[in-house]
TrEMBL record, chain A:
This is Transcriptional regulator. Pfam families: Lar_N. InterPro entries: LarA-like, LarA-like_C, LarA-like_N. GO terms for molecular function: lactate racemase activity. It comes from uncultured Acidimicrobiales bacterium. Signal peptide: none annotated.
Length: 544, 294
C-alpha cells in the first residue's frame, strides 16, 4: 500500500494574513494613548500632536516543520560539506551554544537550541562519535544554573551529558582550559576555550535575536577570555561602531571578524548553525503588548487594566517573579548551517526581514519605554546600570544609517530604575555603582582608571567561576555599551525612576513624560520633533 | 396479579420464525453515543477528576518527551507498549492537549465489550471503541480510520494485549495500517512501571512510580507497508524504553548501532526469560518474615 498525501507531523500551520510591516505613525488628536513599557509595568502616555511613533512589523511566518528544516540545514549546509560527512568515529566533537542571554524573554519549550542540538547529536550517534562535549558559550556572563541549562538544551540532553561532566559552562578564567590561538594583524590576542580549540569539529548553535548576534562573534566572543575580549569590548570600539547592530559599520564586528580569521587560519573547523526567530514576544494574557493600541479589543483593554492595577498592588519581588516567568511564544523563521560568513550573511538578511523599519529623518527627542528584561538580568534584577545599557546601549543602537535621535538631541527613557542589585548575579555592579559612578560617568576615564582593578580582582574572579556572578569587568562593558549614545546625545532623562539612582547615572529624573519633554526643551529648544520607539517587540530603525 | 404479558415477555407463537436478536456486544457494539457532547463532558470530568487522582496516587507518573509533541495539530495515533490495565488511564491522563479530550481508545472487543455494563463503562470513561484482536476485522479498521478522519486521535496498544510475562510482545500491524491508510502520524510511547503496580494476573494494586516517554511522531515513508512501518514503530518504542532506562544519548547511539535492547526479551523460555527481566520484574521478596522467631 502506498501512503496517501502525507499529513506531516504538526500538519499545516495556518498562516492567516500576511504580516504587516513596521511603520511610522504621526500622532494626531485621534491617536489613542501610547503604550510605554516601564520595567515590570506599563504606562499609557499621550504624546504631543505631530510626534511620531515607530511600530515594529508583525511576526513574520514561521517554519512549518522546524525539525525537518533543521535536518535539511545540517544535510545541505552552505559553503561546507554536509554535517554527516564531517563526523567520524574517534573524533572530538564539541557543541557550543548561546547562553541564557538569548532569546528574550526565554522561549517556551522546546527551546530552539534543544531542537538543533538533538538533531546534531542524532547524526553524531549515527556516525559513531563517542567523544562529545557541550559548552554554554557565556564569555564573561554568569554561569547558567541547572534549570536554565535544562531549559536550553532539554532534559534528554542534560540528563545524558551533565552527570558525566560533558555539559558545562565555559570558564573564561580557567587558565588550564584556555588556549592562546594567535594574534590578529592589529595585535589582538585570540584566546578561546581549549576543548573547542582542540576539537576536530566545533558546532556552534546560535540564536540570532538581533543582527549583532552570530557570525565570528559566536566563537571569538562566546568562548573567549577577558584577555581576548578586552580588545573589542572597550570604549574606542563602541564609539566607532555606528551602530554595532550594523555589521558594515561596526568596529565590534570587524574585531571579531579579524579574530575569526585567526581561528580559521589556525585550523579550527567550525560548523556554524544560526537560527532566527519571529518577534512573537508575549504570550497571553500579555499579548496586547505587541498590538497597536487602536486594535486592542475589549479583552485586551481589560487585560491591561487588570495587569496594571494588579501590578500596582504587588511588591517588586512579586512583579519580578511574575515577569521573569514569561515564556515567549517565539518560533523559528529560519535555520542555516555551514561556513560562518556565508551562514551569517543569510541569517542577517532574515533578521532584517523581521526587524527593519524604514524611518525618514532623525528627531530632536526620542522616547523609549524600557521593559523588565535585558540580556543580563534574566531571572534577576534590572539594576540602574542595566537600565542605562538597555536604553543607551541596545535600544539606541537598534539603527542602520543614522541614530533615531539627532546629534545633541535628548533621549527620554521610561523605567522605575530602582536602586536595587542582585547580590549573587551582579556583585561587581554594586561596587561599580557605589564607587566608580560616584566618581565619574565618563566612559574613557572609567576605563583608564578603574577597569583593570575590577577585571583582575580575585574575589570577583572567584564568584564568576564558582558562583553565578557576572565577571568583575562586566559592569564596565555595560557602561561602554552606552559610550556611543553618551557621546552622541545632549541629555538623557529617565521618567518615573528613582531620582537618586538616575542622578548617579549622570542622567536627569522626571516624574512624568510632559515634565521630561519640558526639560528636554532646555537642550533642544522649543517645539522639538519627537519620535517614540514602540518596542518591544524589537525592531531596527533604518534611518534615512 | 402483575404476572404474565405484558408484565413478562410474551410467548412466541408456534410456527413463527423468530428474528435474530440484534447483538450489541463485542465488535458490534455501537460506541458512537460516547462521542456525543454529553458523554464527552462526562468523560472530561471523569478523566480530569477521579482518573487523574487515582493515577497520581497509584502510579506517580513522570512524563517525558512532551516537547516532542509541541506545536502539533490534528489527530495523532499514540502507540504504546502494554503491561497493565493501568496503561490506558495513565495514557489518558498523560497525553497533552489538544489531543487528550478528543481521543478514542482501541479496546479489545472480546474483553471490554463482552457485556453491556463493561462496554458502556469503557466507552464512557475512556472513549473506548471495540477492535478485534483475534482476527483481522475490516469493520474495526474502517471505524478506526473514520474516527481518525474525523479528527479523533487514537490510543492503541499494538502488542494486542497485556504482557504475559513482563516482556513486550511483537507489534501487530493495526497502528501502522491506520497510519498508512489515513496519513496520520504515529507517536511511539513507552510506559515503564505499570507492570510492577498491576501486572496481568495480579489481584491487588501495589502503588509505585511510572514513566511515560513520548517519542517523535513517525510518518509513513514512501514505499512503507504496514509490516515495515510496524517494525519501525516497535523499534521506536524500544529506543524510548532504552532512553527511559538509561539516557537519551546512550539510547541514540545504540539505536544508530542497531544494538537497542529488544522489547520482547531473549528468545528463551521459562525461568530464563523471567531471570533476564532482573529488577524489572517487580517481584520482590515477601515482607513476611520467614526465619523463625527465637
Amino acid at each position: 500500500m502506498s501512503p496517501p498525501a502525507p499529513r506531516r507531523p504538526g500538519h499545516e500551520v495556518v498562516q492567516g494574513r500576511a504580516p504587516r510591516p513596521g511603520f511610522v505613525l504621526e500622532v494626531d488628536r485621534s491617536t489613542p494613548s501610547t503604550l510605554f513599557h516601564h520595567g515590570e509595568g506599563f504606562r499609557l502616555e499621550r504624546l504631543p500632536v505631530g510626534s511620531r511613533i515607530v511600530y515594529p512589523s508583525e511576526a513574520v511566518p514561521v517554519l512549518r516543520h522546524p525539525e525537518e528544516a533543521i535536518r535539511q540545514a545540517l544535510l545541505q549546509p552552505v559553503g561546507q560539506d554536509p554535517l554527516p560527512a564531517q563526523l567520524f568515529p574517534g573524533m572530538k566533537l564539541t557543541i557550543a551554544f548561546d547562553d541564557v542571554s538569548l532569546p528574550l524573554p526565554k522561549m517556551r519549550r522546546p527551546d530552539i537550541r534543544q531542537r538543533v542540538i538533538e538533531a546534531v547529536l542524532d547524526l553524531a550517534a549515527e556516525a559513531g562519535v563517542d567523544d562529545v562535549h557541550l559548552i554554554a558559550a557565556l564569555a564573561l556572563h554568569r554561569r547558567m544554573t541547572e534549570a536554565e541549562l535544562r531549559h536550553a538544551v532539554g532534559d534528554r540532553v542534560y540528563d545524558a551529558f551533565a552527570p558525566h561532566g560533558l555539559l558545562y559552562n565555559h570558564d573564561a578564567e580557567d587558565p588550564d582550559n584556555l588556549t592562546l590561538v594567535g594574534h590578529t594583524e592589529l595585535g589582538e590576542e585570540v584566546e578561546i576555550n581549549k576543548r573547542a580549540a582542540e576539537s576536530d569539529l566545533l558546532v556552534y548553535v546560535n540564536i540570532n535575536l538581533v543582527s549583532m548576534d552570530g557570525g565570528h562573534k559566536s566563537t571569538a566572543t562566546g568562548l573567549s577570555s577577558y584577555r581576548s575580549l578586552r580588545h573589542h569590548h572597550n570604549v574606542k570600539t563602541m564609539q566607532h561602531s555606528r551602530s554595532f547592530m550594523d555589521q558594515h559599520r561596526s568596529e565590534l564586528h570587524s574585531s571579531n571578524w579579524r579574530m575569526g580569521k585567526v581561528l580559521r587560519d589556525a585550523g579550527l573547523k567550525v560548523f556554524q548553525i544560526e537560527t532566527t526567530l519571529n518577534n512573537d514576544t508575549f504570550p497571553k494574557p500579555f499579548d496586547f503588548l505587541q498590538k497597536r493600541e487602536w486594535e486592542w479589543s475589549a479583552r485586551d483593554r481589560m487585560a491591561f487594566v487588570a495587569a496594571t492595577s494588579g501590578l500596582d498592588r504587588m511588591s517588586n519581588r512579586m512583579k519580578r517573579n511574575l515577569f521573569q516567568s514569561i515564556e515567549a511564544p517565539h518560533d523559528m523563521t529560519g535555520v542555516v548551517a555551514g561556513e560562518i560568513e556565508a551562514v551569517h550573511a543569510i541569517t542577517t538578511a532574515k533578521v532584517f526581514e523581521q526587524q527593519l523599519v524604514p524611518v525618514s529623518g532623525q528627531a530632536d527627542v526620542v522616547t523609549m519605554g524600557l521593559p523588565y528584561i535585558s540580556p543580563y538580568n534574566v531571572h534577576s534584577i534590572m539594576n540602574p546600570i542595566l537600565v542605562a545599557c538597555l536604553g543607551l546601549g541596545y535600544f539606541f543602537n537598534m539603527y542602520r544609517g543614522k541614530p533615531l535621535v539627532r546629534e545633541g538631541g535628548v533621549v527620554i527613557l521610561s523605567h522605575p530604575t530602582p536602586w536595587e542589585f542582585h547580590p549573587v548575579h551582579h556583585p561587581s555592579y554594586i561596587d561599580f555603582f557605589e564607587q566608580v559612578l560616584a566618581d565619574t560617568t565618563d566612559p574613557v576615564e572609567i576605563e583608564k582608571r578603574y577597569e583593570a582593578s575590577f577585571a583582575e580582582d580575585e574575589w570577583y574572579r572567584h564568584l564568576y567561576r564558582t558562583s553565578y556572578a557576572y565577571h568583575g569587568v562586566h559592569p564596565f562593558y555595560m557602561w561602554y555599551w552606552c559610550a556611543h549614545a553618551l557621546q552622541h546625545v545632549g541629555a538623557v532623562i529617565i521618567v518615573g525612576g528613582d531620582p537618586r539612582a538616575v542622578r548617579r547615572l549622570g542622567f536627569r529624573p522626571a516624574s512624568t513624560l510632559p515634565d521630561a519633554l519640558e526639560m528636554a526643551e532646555d537642550t533642544v529648544g522649543r517645539d522639538p520633533s519627537i519620535t517614540h520607539t514602540h518596542a518591544p517587540p524589537l525592531y531596527m530603525a533604518d534611518v534615512s | 396479579m402483575l404476572r404474565g404479558f405484558p408484565f413478562a415477555a410474551p410467548n412466541v407463537p408456534e410456527g413463527v420464525e423468530v428474528l435474530p436478536r440484534k447483538v450489541r456486544r463485542g465488535a458490534a457494539y455501537d460506541s458512537s453515543w460516547a462521542r456525543e457532547q454529553p458523554a464527552r463532558y462526562a468523560r472530561f470530568f471523569i478523566v480530569e477528576g477521579p482518573m487523574r487522582a487515582a493515577v497520581s496516587t497509584l502510579a506517580s507518573p513522570t512524563r517525558k518527551g512532551l516537547d516532542r509533541l509541541a506545536g502539533l495539530r490534528g489527530p495523532l495515533i499514540f502507540a504504546a507498549n502494554h503491561h497493565s490495565h493501568l496503561d490506558a488511564p495513565l495514557m489518558l491522563t498523560s497525553i497533552p492537549q489538544p489531543f487528550r479530550h478528543r481521543m478514542v481508545v482501541a479496546a479489545a472487543a472480546d474483553y471490554f465489550f463482552g457485556n453491556q455494563v463493561t462496554a458502556a463503562l469503557s466507552a464512557l470513561a475512556m472513549g473506548a471503541f471495540p477492535i478485534e484482536r483475534s482476527r483481522v476485522s475490516r469493520g474495526s479498521a474502517e471505524q478506526a480510520a473514520e474516527l481518525l478522519e474525523e479528527d479523533w486521535s487514537l490510543l492503541i496498544f499494538p502488542e494486542g494485549g497485556r504482557s504475559p510475562d513482563g516482556w513486550g510482545q511483537g507489534h501487530r500491524g493495526g497502528a501502522a495500517f491506520l497510519s498508512l491508510r489515513t496519513g496520520v502520524p504515529v507517536v511511539p510511547v513507552h510506559l515503564a512501571g505499570t507492570d510492577r503496580i498491576y501486572p496481568r494476573g495480579a489481584t491487588r494494586l501495589r502503588p509505585g512510580s511510572t514513566t511515560v516517554t513520548f517519542g517523535h511522531p513517525l510518518q509513513p515513508a514512501e514505499g512503507d507497508d504496514a509490516r515495515r512501518l510496524a517494525v519501525k514503530i516497535e523499534a521506536a518504542v524500544a529506543t524510548l524504553a532504552d532512553e527511559s532506562a538509561t539516557d537519551w544519548w546512550g539510547a541514540r547511539r545504540r539505536a544508530a548501532a542497531g544494538t537497542t535492547p529488544s522489547l520482547t526479551g531473549p528468545g528463551t523460555t521459562g525461568w530464563r526469560r523471567t531471570w533476564a527481566l532482573g529488577d524489572r520484574s517487580g517481584r520482590t521478596r515477601p515482607a513476611r518474615r520467614t526465619w523463625p522467631e527465637l
